[in-house]
Design brief:
It is a single chain. By secondary structure, this protein is α/β, with parallel strands linked by helices. Helix 2 crosses helix 9. The longest helix is centred in the N-terminal third of the chain and has 18 residues.
Length: 254
């Protein structure tokens, strides 16, 4: 608890030192799914993670009180379009399909899909090219960019679908699949996990994806405010402080 209090105090100090004081006015309703550690998730009854800290820093910069609105991930874009939230800050990858519905800000981080395996498979699949072998058994989560990558690039693989990483981890342990392809944050969590010590990630991105925040296409003024806030967060070290707090491996900030 003491460590948690210190890190929270550290973030507040960074915001105070770098961002200055602002009189908070209009509420900024931030939509997120709170199920994607370390980007956003529930811990001890609270919503925490990278995007939560990002939203607080942005709120300080633009002078708006932040209200977190938790929704299923698939419901975020419909809620944005309906006016129920003002911005999506939920670790959303920029894709052409999504860009046709929302307006993305400048990206705050580059990530990618990574392959996770059981330690017993290291000898066979430790090289990034090994995923392209014929007959490799691949696990994916439906509707994700990892599933799209597998369907597009791994024509000779046997692809199985799992509802979430926990189900896929079980499949790896039962030797039902050789590799599980999922977003980088899932691999980052393995580095901090004691219960999943028998699993490891290649940490070699199979794709290049940009994470960004999304607003309605007609909300250009808000997008401008968010982009200005993000530029300041990048230049004064606030964004890197937040990433270092939550991610145990090096990531690239753009």
């Amino acid at each position: 608890m003491m460590r948690k209090a210190l890190t929270q105090a550290g973030l507040a100090l960074v915001c105070t030192l770098f961002l200055g004081g602002f009189a908070l006015a209009e509420t900024l309703r931030v939509g997120l799914s709170a199920d994607y550690p370390p980007l956003h998730y529930r811990q001890d009854g609270r919503i925490v993670g990278i995007e939560v800290d990002n939203s607080r820093a942005v709120g300080e910069i633009i002078g708006r009180r932040v209200e977190l609105v938790v929704l299923p991930f698939e419901g975020l874009i419909p809620a944005l379009k309906a006016g129920d939230i003002d911005v999506i800050m939920s670790g959303m990858s920029v894709t052409p399909e999504r860009s046709a519905q929302v307006y993305f800000t400048e990206p705050y981080m580059q990530v990618g899909q990574m392959a996770i395996m059981h330690r017993d498979k290291v000898g066979r699949y430790s090289q990034p090219w090994s995923i392209y072998r014929e007959g490799v058994r691949i696990g994916v989560e439906p509707g994700t960019t990892g599933a799209a990558f597998a369907e597009r690039e791994l024509k000779d693989a046997e692809i199985s679908v799992y509802s979430d990483p926990g189900a896929a981890f079980g499949a790896l342990r039962r030797d039902e699949i050789d590799l599980y392809i999922h977003d980088a944050p899932t691999s980052w969590q393995l580095a901090n996990s004691t219960e999943n010590g028998d699993l490891l990630s290649l940490y070699s991105p199979l794709t290049e994806e940009m994470l960004a925040w999304a607003v309605r296409p007609e909300d250009g003024a808000l997008a401008g405010e968010l982009n200005r806030a993000l530029k300041l967060m990048k230049s004064n070290g606030t964004l890197q402080y937040i990433l270092n707090r939550w991610i145990p491996v090096k990531v690239e900030v753009r």
